[in-house]
């Protein structure tokens, strides 16, 4: 490609609305433009990278036995009503209505559509396992679209689905997909960790996220040397039993206007960990009281899983008053109205004296004990792990790091196939429910994640495997005939050899050309200048290391080919 002809609008300044380096660099390097909040045009340079990521994903999915297909983006609401997600998916779901007043969904994910296809065609155990995938635009009305394509409302995803006779067959496919995902991200030149994750609204049990390690990541990861790694939404921690305390009588204490953990703990002079935080949620129509220690955060993802509802919502002040008899800020589990389901976090200890709300205005209770004052009927892991917590497996203090979730794999089980009656006949002729897995990769998010990991103060430093071009040829002064000649001939020769070349044939100052080259981040740059040509050499510069080698003009094409091929081999699939 000749830069003089390319639609490659680079910018000197960062866009005002960009926080993340990847977002800034994608806009500045001419990869991306915003059309509306969370909605972007991917320009030619960005599209080249996107397609390379797509192709790597495609190759690895095909290698793992996947077959690519294309499901509709527009889906009738009836399918989503069958699984209950029309109601449960919430506001992230883009809903549409046609001229006949029929409701539709713009696909945020495609379990319904694929299960509908499969139930109509799979008859026998002989048709299983089956692994289908697509690479397609997804729509999610994110509450806070931000960070460019990292969290967009319209984005590209690879979504795959597998169908099985039983859990054992699913487990084998799940392992294959896990390996395939690892291969994808390795080939994209990324450093990543695989973590145990929360299954969110999709449901199902075992699932893992692929996290690209980056300071800017939205996800918190807890890990320890034994190999345990989990996102903060699901990380467990070891609960160390605290030494038992002497029983003391349940005591009422006036706490005028003190509502928050901080206010109550400083007013009473007790540590926040001795308080119990009691929060009323609604899972659909059903109220629940969730109780966690005052020094821990209630984890909404864990709560959602325990309640089997994708998005429990906090009760309003009026609802709390009606349910508990006390105002917001004074809720507690003691003497709570019969029938209000109460769940205590596993880290709430037996044989300890706690402070809780008194379910009356300006009232707290002291010396609240499990068993005696609160019936600990239901216990669950409801709180978020925090710094200093110990690994649930080995007991070591866990390490905290940040990551970008680029991929997610789930063992779904029969959640969708049961709701949608997707069945097969086993060898004995019995009708059985198909067991499913689901697997997603954020294609456009992966592009951004590569930039988050591979950039410096001057711009992007692409790995060869996903770089928009392999080599950037920069003739320093295009009005110098020999310079132009050498550049043109190198350009033609490399193109012919199948190397992807960007030629900066613009009549620009050398400084501006080099700045653009660094910004765009093509891994190899060939600089052709008058001075070098006098010595019969051109300069080869490695974008990542900055290393410069002087190469005789006659060897330049050969040397570039060698380097490109070597680098691509390193990032190629290893069978
Ligand atoms: P997140 O927790 O980041 O919202 P998710 O759990 O909703 O992600 P999945 O439903 O598992 O995501 O989707 C599969 C993949 O699609 C994710 O791993 C991520 O890489 C990508 N993805 C999800 N939401 C977005 C988005 N709004 N913009 C870009 N990519 C996304
Ligand atoms: Mg999401």
UniProtKB/TrEMBL annotation:
SUPFAM superfamilies membership: Class II aaRS ABD-related, Class II aaRS and biotin synthetases, YbaK/ProRS associated domain
Pfam family, one: HGTP_anticodon
UniProt entry keywords in alphabetical sequence: Aminoacyl-tRNA synthetase, ATP-binding, Cytoplasm, Ligase, Nucleotide-binding, Protein biosynthesis
Any one GO cellular component localisation term in the record: cytosol
InterPro entries according to UniProt: aa-tRNA-synt_IIb, aa-tRNA-synth_II, aa-tRNA-synth_II/BPL/LPL, Anticodon-bd, Anticodon-bd_dom_sf, Pro-tRNA-ligase_IIa, Pro-tRNA-synth_IIa_bac-type, Pro-tRNA-Synthase_IIa_type1
Domain of life: Bacteria
Domain Aminoacyl-transfer RNA synthetases class-II family profile: 38-463
Family, per entry: Belongs to the class-II aminoacyl-tRNA synthetase family. ProS type 1 subfamily.
Protein name, entry field: Proline--tRNA ligase
Biological source species: Eiseniibacteriota bacterium
């Amino acid at each position: 490609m000749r830069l003089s002809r390319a639609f490659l609008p680079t910018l000197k300044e960062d866009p005002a609305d960009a926080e993340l380096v990847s977002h800034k660099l994608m806009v500045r390097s001419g990869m991306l433009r915003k059309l509306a909040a969370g909605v972007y045009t991917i320009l030619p340079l960005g599209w080249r990278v996107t397609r390379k990521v797509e192709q790597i994903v495609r190759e690895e999915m095909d290698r793992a036995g996947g077959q690519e297909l294309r499901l509709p983006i527009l889906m009738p609401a009836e399918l989503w009503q069958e699984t209950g997600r029309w109601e449960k998916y919430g506001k992230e779901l883009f809903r549409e209505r046609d001229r006949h007043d029929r409701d539709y969904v713009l696909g945020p994910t495609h379990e319904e559509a694929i299960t509908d296809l499969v139930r109509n065609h799979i008859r026998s155990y002989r048709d299983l396992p089956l692994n289908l995938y697509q690479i397609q635009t997804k729509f999610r009305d994110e509450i806070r679209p931000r960070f460019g394509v990292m969290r967009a409302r319209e984005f590209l995803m690879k979504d795959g689905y597998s169908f099985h006779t039983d859990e054992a067959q699913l487990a084998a496919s799940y392992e294959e997909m896990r390996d395939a995902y690892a291969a994808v991200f390795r080939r994209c030149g990324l450093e990543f960790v695989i973590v145990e994750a929360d299954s969110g609204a999709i449901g199902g049990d075992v699932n893992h996220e692929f996290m690209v390690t980056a300071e800017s990541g939205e996800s918190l990861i807890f890990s320890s040397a034994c190999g345990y790694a989990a996102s903060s939404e699901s990380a467990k921690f070891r609960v160390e039993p605290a030494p038992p305390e002497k029983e003391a009588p349940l005591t009422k204490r006036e706490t005028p206007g003190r509502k928050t953990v901080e206010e109550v703990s400083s007013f009473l002079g007790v540590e926040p960990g001795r308080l119990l935080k009691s929060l009323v949620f609604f899972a659909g129509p059903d109220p629940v009281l969730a109780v966690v220690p005052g020094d821990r955060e209630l984890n909404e993802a864990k709560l959602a899983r325990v309640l089997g509802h994708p998005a429990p919502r906090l009760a309003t002040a009026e609802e709390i008053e009606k349910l508990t008899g006390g105002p917001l800020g004074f809720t507690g589990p003691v003497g709570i109205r019969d029938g209000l389901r109460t769940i205590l976090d596993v880290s709430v200890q037996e044989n300890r004296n706690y402070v809780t709300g008194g379910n009356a205005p300006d009232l707290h209770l002291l010396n609240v004990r499990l068993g005696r004052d609160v019936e600990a009927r239901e216990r669950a892991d409801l709180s978020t792990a925090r710094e200093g917590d110990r690994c649930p497996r080995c007991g070591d203090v866990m390490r905290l790091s940040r990551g970008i979730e680029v991929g997610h794999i789930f063992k779904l089980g029969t959640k969708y196939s049961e709701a949608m009656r997707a069945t097969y006949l086993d060898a004995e002729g019995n009708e059985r429910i198909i067991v499913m897995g689901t697997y997603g990769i954020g294609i456009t998010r992966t592009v951004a994640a590569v930039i988050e990991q591979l950039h410096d103060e001057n711009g992007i430093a692409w790995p060869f495997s996903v770089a928009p071009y392999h080599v950037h040829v920069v003739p320093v002064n295009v009005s110098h005939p020999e310079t132009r000649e050498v550049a043109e001939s190198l350009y033609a020769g490399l193109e012919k050899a199948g190397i992807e070349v960007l030629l900066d044939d613009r009549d620009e100052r050398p400084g501006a050309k080099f700045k653009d080259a660094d910004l765009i981040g093509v891994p190899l740059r060939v600089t052709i200048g008058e001075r070098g040509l006098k010595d019969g050499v051109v300069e080869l510069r490695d974008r990542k290391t900055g290393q410069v080698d002087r190469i005789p003009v006659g060897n330049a094409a050969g040397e570039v080919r060698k380097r490109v091929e070597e680098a691509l081999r390193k990032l190629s699939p290893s069978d």
